[in-house]
Structure formats: C-alpha cells, structure tokens
UniProtKB/TrEMBL annotation:
The keyword Endoplasmic reticulum does not apply. It comes from Oleiagrimonas soli. This is GCN5 family acetyltransferase. It comes from the Bacteria. Residues 4-151 form the N-acetyltransferase domain. The keyword Acyltransferase applies.
Length: 151
C-alpha cells in the first residue's frame, strides 16, 4: 500500500469534509449533525484561514482522510496550540498510516509556525484512538473539559 500524501484542503473538498464530519459524529458520538449548519461551518474554515485549516490525506489520488486544525492562544506560553479536530479516515484506509501521516504534517506545520504544542480531545470510550495518540507521543492531560452551548 502506498504512503498517503497530505495536502491543504480547498473548497473542492467541501463535500468530502461535510460527509466525513457527519460520519465521524455518527460513529464516535452517535450524533446526527444538521448538514446545513455543518456545511456552513466547514465553509467558514475554508473561507477564513484565521479559523484554522483542513488537511486531506490522499492515497493513489483518492481522498482517504482529513482533519481540522484550529488555534488556541496561550498567554501562559505566549504562543498558539494547534488543536487537532474532526479527524476522519475512511474505513478501508484505517490502520494503514493515514492518521500518522496527517499527524506528522500537523506537527511539522505547528513547529514551522512557532506553535507551543498540539492538543486534541477524544471521547472517553474511544480506546483505539487513545492508543493511537499515545503511540505518537501524546500524553493525557490533567484537565477535564466543560462546556456550555448556545442555541
């Protein structure tokens, strides 16, 4: 199997990104996302680089996975954390190095941008993903996440 290549997403990838985000939410959180809101949200990143960026993994010219990177400013460290979000790899390409290639590309971009680190969150029950992240050298944080949503 050939190694995946990684590239920045473009507006031409909108349909893949929307489909994959919807699939990821269904698979990992058993949630059905509103496609109109999701489409606008993905487009919002593609339209405004200040919000972040998507990367696409391709194998033999076919898109097989993606992730979103957003930024969090840390006043304590005087720099940005790159947050990895919305990770999706098509089922037929899982466990074949696609996420590793995406992660490596994010890490390279983060270092080149002078980021102070990378973060992500993972569902408590997603043990497979947790093992993957730990295998890449990431460590579980001491923080719990809380949120309030509006609307």
């Amino acid at each position: 199997m050939t190694a995946p290549t990684i590239r920045a997403a473009t507006h031409d990838d909108l349909d893949h990104l929307v489909d994959w985000n919807a699939a990821m939410a269904a698979e990992t959180e058993h949630k059905t996302l509103d496609r109109a809101v999701l489409t606008a949200g993905v487009r919002g990143v593609l339209d405004e680089s200040r919000r972040g960026f998507y990367l696409i993994a391709e194998r033999d010219g076919e898109a097989v996975g993606s992730l979103l990177v957003t930024y969090e400013w840390s006043d304590w460290r005087n720099g940005d954390f790159f947050w990895i979000q919305s990770v999706y790899v098509v089922e037929s390409a899982r466990r074949s190095g696609v996420f590793r290639a995406l992660y490596t590309a994010v890490e390279q971009r983060a270092r080149e941008a002078g980021a102070v680190g990378m973060r992500l969150y993972v569902e408590h029950e997603n043990h497979r993903a947790q093992k993957t992240y730990e295998g890449l050298g990431m460590q579980r944080c001491d923080y719990h996440m809380y949120e309030v949503t509006f609307g």
